[in-house]
Amino acid sequence: MSKVGLIKVQMKVVFFALALVPMIEVSGQSAQDIQTQLEPSRRGASVPPAPNASKLELTERQAVARARSEYSGNVLRISLVGNGANRRYQIRMEKEGKVFTLFVHARTGKITRGG
Question: DSSP string spanning 35-62?
Answer without folding.
Answer: HHHH-GGG--TT-PPPTTTTT----HHH
